[in-house]
Amino acid sequence: MRKVLTPLITLSLIIGITPLHAAVKAGTKCAIYGQTRNINGKEFTCIKFGKKLVWNKGIEKAIAELITPWGSMNNSLTYKAQTLPSQKPKSLITPASNLANISQCKIPDAGPLGDIPNNPQRHFVSGFPIYPERTKLSENPTIQVVPVDFSDLQGSSAPALDLKDVTSFVSDFYQKQSTKVIKLNWSIPEKYFRMPKTLAEYELGGEFFKGGFNGDKTFSFAREAIKIVDSTVDFSSSSIIAVVVPPQVTRQQIGGFVAQASESNYPFSTNEKIYLMF
User: Fold this and answer.
1) Distance, C-alpha 4 to centroid of its chain
2) Which run of H or of E encompasses 5?
C-alpha cells in the first residue's frame, strides 16, 4: 500500500514454603521483576541490579502511593466548568478596526524557525508558527491506542476499561483548554497484544531526570509494538499513536515516557502511513 506522510502525535505465581517477609531485605535476591512487598510501612520493589534481581531500599508507603504513575492522576488536577453568562455585557465591544493586528500577539517559536536556529527539536513548540505536521485538535482527530503486555506484566482486563480514567481525563483536559469544541476519538483494540520479550528484557526503567532512563530503548520498544499489531490494527483513519501497557506497571519497570511531534528523523511507520505524532 502506498505510504502517505501524515502527522505523528504474568502474573507469575511463585509457590514455595519460604515465609512471605523472610527474604525481603534491601539488596537480597528477589524472583519477579517489578514485584512489590509492603513491610513495616515500607514498600519494597524487585529491581534489576546488573544481571541480578534484588530488593531495593524501599520507600515509605505514603510516598509510594503518591508516585504511583496511574494512581496519582486522579488527584493531580481539578477543573471546574464555567457557567455561561445569561446577560449581555453592558460595555460596548471595541470595533475590530480599532484593534491591533493579531499577528503582533503571535509569539515566534524559539525552535528551528525562531530565535534559536541551532535547536533541531520541533516537538517543543510553544509559539508560532505551528508546524503543518502537527495534528489539528479542532478537526476531531483519532488516537490509535496500541495496548501491549508481557509475560511478566499481563493485562487482566479490556484495554478500554483499563484506560477509561486516562482517556476521559485527556479528552476533558483539551476540551477545557480550548475555546472551540474539541472531540478526541479513541480507537482501542479489545485485547492486549503480547510482546515477544519480558518487560525486564526491554530495560525501560531508570529515572528520567536522575539518569538511567534510555530514550532510544523506549523508541525501539514502541516501534516493535507497532510492528506486532500492524497486521491487525488499521491505522488509516488515525493521526496519533499511543503505545500503552497494563495499569499495574510501576516506575521501576518503566521509568518514563517518550513523545514525538513533527520530528521527521523519528518517524513511526505502519502499513498505511508514516506517523510523526506519537
Assistant:
1) 25
2) strand 4-5
Q: For residue 94, what is its C-alpha cell?
A: 471595541
CA-to-CA separations, 235 to 6, 78, 86, 95, 192, in angstroms, rounded: 11, 33, 44, 47, 17
Q: Where are the alpha helices (DSSP H) in the chain?
A: 61-66, 159-162, 164-177, 199-202, 215-229
Question: Do 27 and 55 touch, CB atoms closer than 8 A?
Answer: yes
CA distances (Å), 11 to each of 34, 152, 246, 258, in order? 11, 6, 11, 26
Q: Residue ranges of the domains in the chain?
A: 4-11+117-275
Residues 30-41 have a mean pLDDT of 83
Neighbouring residues of 228: CB distance < 8 A, sequence distance ≥ 6: 148, 193, 195, 196
d(CA 198, CA 92): 65
Residue with cell 541551532: 118
- Asked whether the beta carbons of 33 and 198 are under 8 A apart, the reply is yes
Q: Can you point out the beta strands (E) in 36-171?
A: 36-39, 42-49, 52-55, 59-60, 142-149
Three cell numbers written together for 239: 493521526
Q: 253 with 33: CB under 8 angstroms?
A: yes
β-partners of residue 136 are none
Report the percentage of the chain scoring pLDDT > 90: 22
pLDDT digits (tens, 9 = 90+) for 125-182: 667 777 777 788 888 999 999 999 999 999 989 999 999 999 998 898 888 888 788 8
Enter the pTM of the model: 0.62
Cα–Cα distance measured from residue 145 to residue 240, given in angstroms and rounded to the nearest whole number: 8
